[in-house]
């Protein structure tokens, strides 16, 4: 049987820290959170590989180096309230849990929600709240948020999600245009007024589209 504690340590030392993630608390979260519990049984021994792990039902766990760099870019603080869109089986929220005050998760798949809640309970994570609903809506009822992370590639970010940020709040996601295999991890920041944002790309990532955020089909006549 694999020594998953050692496997996760190797993941942190060989994939995450070597890709520029240096924040100690983030490194600790990735080393101590049992990634192998959040994936289907057939992927358990591959859970810490540096690749996206499919969960079924259009969900996946982001590859460790991309995931960790996205979180570091948000510079999470102990009193932050963070929205995660597309929570899947709950791994991303489990990583954020020790880094921030509250994690709000939006997920549309009830089976994912049930598994995530069971895992969070088993790990004693009490600062995560999950809500079932359409991902493209976000979760305006419990905002505004200091940070938002979208757990997959998107063709564009709906303005109604950007509007759920606090002033000065940040959103991170992978922007990927149609027919491209690689997108750009992009950081958005809300400025003073309504609808005013800055954005800039950080690095490339071959992340799959999150269900519901794919490019819209166009028809040629």
How would you describe this protein?
With 221 residues, this protein is α/β, with parallel strands linked by helices. Helix content is 25%, strand content 28%. It contains 6 helices and 9 strands, in the order H-H-E-E-H-E-H-E-H-E-E-H-E-E-E. The protein has helices spanning 4-16, 24-32, 64-74, 91-96, 110-122, 159-162, and strands spanning 53-56, 59-61, 81-85, 102-107, 128-132, 145-154, 165-175, 183-190, 197-205. The protein has a 7-stranded mixed beta sheet. Strands 1-2 form a two-stranded antiparallel ribbon. The N and C termini lie far apart (58 Å).
CATH class: Alpha Beta
Looking at the structure, the CATH topology is Rossmann fold
- What proportion of the residues form beta strands (DSSP E)? 25-35%
Main sheet makeup:
7 strands, mixed
Which percent bin holds the helix content? 25-40%
Sequence of strands across the biggest β-sheet: 5-4-3-6-7-8-9
Radius of gyration: 17 Å
Identify the CATH architecture: 3-Layer(aba) Sandwich
**CATH fourth-tier homologous superfamily:** Vaccinia Virus protein VP39
**Which regions are unreliable across 5 or more consecutive residues at pLDDT < 50?**
none
Shape: globular
Terminal residue distance = 58 Å
Report the structural category.
alpha/beta
Question: Any chance you could write out the topology, listing elements then pairs?
Answer:
Elements: H1 4-16, H2 24-32, E1 53-56, E2 59-61, H3 64-74, E3 81-85, H4 91-96, E4 102-107, H5 110-122, E5 128-132, E6 145-154, H6 159-162, E7 165-175, E8 183-190, E9 197-205
Parallel strand pairs: 3-4, 3-6, 4-5, 6-7
Antiparallel strand pairs: 1-2, 7-8, 8-9
Helix pairs in contact: 1-2, 1-3
